[in-house]
Write the structure tokens for this entry.
Amino acid sequence: MSKIKVTQIRSIIDRPKDQKLTIKALGLGRPNWEKIHNDTPQIRGMIKKVTHLVIVEELKD
């Protein structure tokens, strides 16, 4: 299974509660925090919800 690296680039201050909870569910919380996830439809859906707050990079196996 391929992996993706999600990096938070913007703060969650003054964001709606659902976006804050999505960032927490992705394992992030502050700008410049990174987390590696499996590339699944569930993770992609969470990323789509907060795409303006994160950067996604595909990792080679």
About this structure: The chain has a mean pLDDT of 97.
